[in-house]
Each structure stands twice: as structure tokens, then as C-alpha cells.
Amino acid sequence: MDYNSISKNIRKKILKMKYESQEGHIGSALSCVDILNVLYFKILKIDPKDPLNEDRDRLVFSKGHAAAALYAVLSEKEFFEEKILDAYCKDGSKLAGHSTRGSVPGIEISAGSLGHGLPMASGMALAGKKDNKNYRVFVLMSDGEMDEGTTWESALFSAHHKLDNLTVIVDYNKWQAFGRTNEVLNLEPLAKKWESFGWSVKEINGHNFLEIENVLSIVPFEKVKPNVVIANTIKGKGVEFLEDKLESHYTHITKEDYEKSIR
Amino acid sequence: MRKAFVKTLIELAEKDDRVYLLTGDLGFHALEGFAEKFPERFLNCGVAEQNMMGVAAGLALSGKKPYVYSIVPFVTLRCLEQIRIDVCYHNLDVKIIGIGGGFSYGTLGSTHSVMEEMAILRTIPNMSVFSPADLLETEELFLKTYENKNPAYFRLSNIGQYEVYDKNPNLEIGKPNVVKDGADGVIVATGLMVSICLDIIKKIKNENNINLKLLSVHTVKPLDEKLLMEQISDFKKIFVIEEHSVIGGLGSIVAEVLADSGYGGILKRVGMDDEFLKEIGTADYLRAKHIVKKNGAIEDILNYFK
């Protein structure tokens, strides 16, 4: 299957979960779909039948509030059956609004509070170096997580320890919970910040499959430096009435919108 | 206690290459032995405790056994959410070593003298909380917890040469240890208060012929409540003492267990009042002022049990 069809399937699954549960955080899930698609279908050395293999690549999903996107791509990659998604945010379910390790196969960490994924990923990357393992650790972070102090503590740490097996991907949709990132707490110049912390930085269009694939295929960008990919994305990508809108963080999908959007 | 910790950790690291030591840039003149022997497994993470705790969780998720060291405030409250989510929610094999428990760094003031952390940490699921009385308790609890794969916090004091036992007490996790038997009343203590109370009890025995029992609650959580009740509920009066806030610590724990059981006697809880230090001082000075009540302790305890 081609990237376009896979992303379409993932988005349909997300919308179904969101419609049936009437949960929010839709825009945050939609903006990282194409990145997850390329990661799971091209980049990550993983085996859905052996999800805890010691030598697997790790995808640390730090922006836990976009869990629906992770569940959708994991089901698309056949880590588990699609019908499990029906439990999303239902009473008595394990499929929470924030991704939780152990709830379904393939989830590396429990996330939800921002800024926890990168420090944990740094520990995994360091362990890989110490053990002379070849696995790589990827961390998908939201731009809101760039506000957290732990992100920059970890940026220092990972550069100091030369963790070139570690790659942060920033889903830079430029919206956070209360408004535009440059209005709430300006991150710019974001690439220069990472550079000055000793990371090797690349900037891409986070919806262009080839750009995503090309950049993630060449990590490490430089020897002995951790990598960061700033992926410019659109919040709510793929659903016209949600694209680039703050409301997509909170809105609940009506029946009419749902039927319109999955066409 | 710090020496006991480092010595034991070196022994463990010699036979187990999964053992890592992380510090938040503290432990000068203490951790060098480990750092020199195992430079690859010694990580000074800098003054960035939240990241350090997250890194420890990542190491544990990758099969390592990290021991995370700093002084109490910075390795507990500074990174509390990392302890709660990264370590405890994931239920990982991360051991947290807090040095300078209670008033150890009293001259440095309230930023460095944490009186609340046992109360806070014991409410987090999967977490165990240890408050050993002396070197031998520290060593034994260290070796016992090494065997398991769960989160644990150790509150260690580093000021004072206190010795409770002549020989290994053979502790079991969660089971309060009878340091001294007695028929006229019982004192329940934890940490350095155990040795201080042992001295007081000996004096009272010699001078007043009152024979008090003393318990060391080295494991604040998990606690064998049934055993604790067997050890104390026959006494009409119970005295609990700790170098910790009276809110939520050992006094509260004993009160909870007694209240649940329908105990009909009297409980006295002694600890730090609900306030920050208004003046600083050495650990001995502050203990005397806030906990043992200088020169009044023996009298207080005597009057209580009379």
C-alpha cells in the first residue's frame, strides 16, 4: 500500500475513535499521522509479532494526548486487531486518551504529562550505547513540549553523552492549548536553540512523505551528535474544517461532520 | 549511612554489570570509589534532577538497575512527577537514594531539610519507602531490595555516628523490628530516632526501673500492619517519634493502623510541627529543639508512661 492510502486509513480510524468517544485532541492526532506512517512503514526496525525484542528500534511517543494516532498506526501495522480501537476512551477500557505502556503491544512509555518522553528516551539511547546495540530511539514530541524545562535538561544531557542514536521529531503544528505557540511562549528560533545545545538539526515539511523518509533514512546526520527533525505540520491535517484551527484541540465531532470527513 | 550505601553498591556492581549509579552533581568525597571502579556505569547527570530521574527510568526499561543519588530535597520533591510517572507508574527497578534525611543539613536551612517527603512518597502506588536506623539496617535493606525489581526510596542520614545493633538484625522488608523488649510501654521510631530512643530507654530503665519496648520501623511502606498490631496493641499507651513532619509520616501511619483496628488506648505522635525552620542549626541542635525537646525528652517520655 502507498503512503497516501495508509495515512488515509489512519486518519479514518482516528476520526472514528474521536466520533464514537466524543473526545478532543483531534488536531494534535491528525498533525502527526504522516510522520507516524513513514516511521512505522519504512523507518523503524520493528516486528509486530515480537514487540519487545531487545534490538528493536524504539518510538517513544511523548505527545501522549495524541494517543489515538498511535493506536491507529499500531493497528494499521497489525500490532493488534483493529476492533480493539472500539474501546478507545470507553468505560472500563485500557485504551486511554493518553497512551499507556502495556495497554496494547507496541507502546514504549506511558505518556500524558508533557516533557517526560525525551529524558526516558535518552536513558534508552544511553543503554543502547553502553551495550553496543545498534537500535535507534526516536521521540515524537509536540511543540508544546518545547516549553518544558525537562526538554532542555535532556537536550544538554543527550548532547553531552553524544547520543547520535537518538532522534527527536518535533510535530511543529504551531498551536498549543491556548493559542499560537508564538503568542503563548515563543519558541523561535527553534532550530538554532537545538543547534546551540549541540544537536544536529534538519527542518522538513511534516506532511511530505518523501521529505520525511529521506531525512529519517540518514540518521545520524552527524557522528556523535543527537538528531532533531523539526517537522512543520498543520494541526488537524486532512480534515478540512479542522485544519490549522485551535478548536481542533477541543472540538467534538458531530455526526454530520464525521460522515463528511471520512469520505 | 552514606558509606554503607557506597560500599554495598560497589559490592553489588562488582557482581552485576546492570548496576548504574546516577547523581545530580552531589556526592563529592563519597561516590569517588564507585566512579573510579566503574566509570562506565557512573553518570553525573548534572544539576538536572528531573532529567536524571527520566534517564533512570529509560535505563531501567532497557534492563539496567539504576541507583539515583542526591540529597533528599532534590532527589524527591524536585523530580516528584518523574518519580510518580516515569518510575512508579511504569513500576520500574529504580532505587532512589536520598542523603541528608531530616535535619542532617540543618545549618543549610529549610531548602535542604525536608520534613515531608516520606508522607508524600508513601502515597504513590508501587513505591516502597525505607528509613533505616543505622549502618547495619541500611546494608541489609539495600541487599534485600536489590533482589526485587520495584521502585524504592531510601532516606539516609549522614550526620551522627549512631549504632543500634551489635550484629546483623536480619530484617525483613515491611516487618518492624523489635530492637528492645519491654513490658511497661512501647516506643515506635524510625531512622536515627531509633538510636536516640535506645539511649533514652536505657537511662529510664537504669534510673526509674521502667522497662520500655522499642520498635524500628525501617520500612515505612509497605508495612505489615498485622505484625505491627501484634507488636504494640497490648500496650495502653503508644509513643511514636520521627524526624519528619507530624503530618503523614510514621505517626500518621501508626494512627491509621490503630484507628482501623479499633484500638482503645492512647497514642502520642512526636515529630516536626507543621512549619518551616525559623532558625537554622546543627542536626543535634534542631533535633533537640524540635523533636527530642532538649533535656525534656526523658521527662516527657517518663511522664507519658507513668
UniProtKB/TrEMBL annotation, chain A:
InterPro entries, per the entry: THDP-binding (IPR029061), Transketolase_N (IPR005474)
Domain (Transketolase N-terminal): residue spans on this chain: 18-257
Pfam families, A to Z: Transketolase_N
Name of the protein in its database record: Transketolase
Species of the source: Candidatus Staskawiczbacteria bacterium RIFOXYB1_FULL_37_44
Organism ancestry: Bacteria, Candidatus Staskawicziibacteriota
TrEMBL record, chain B:
Cofactor requirement: thiamine diphosphate
Residues covered by the Transketolase-like pyrimidine-binding domain: 1-164
Gene3D superfamilies the UniProt entry points to: 3.40.50.920, 3.40.50.970
Keyword hit for Membrane: no
Keyword tags: Thiamine pyrophosphate
Keyword Iron: no
InterPro entries listed in its UniProt record: PDH/Transketolase, THDP-binding, Transketo_C/PFOR_II, Transketolase-like_Pyr-bd, Transketolase_C
Record-stated family: Belongs to the transketolase family.
Protein's UniProt name: Transketolase-like pyrimidine-binding domain-containing protein
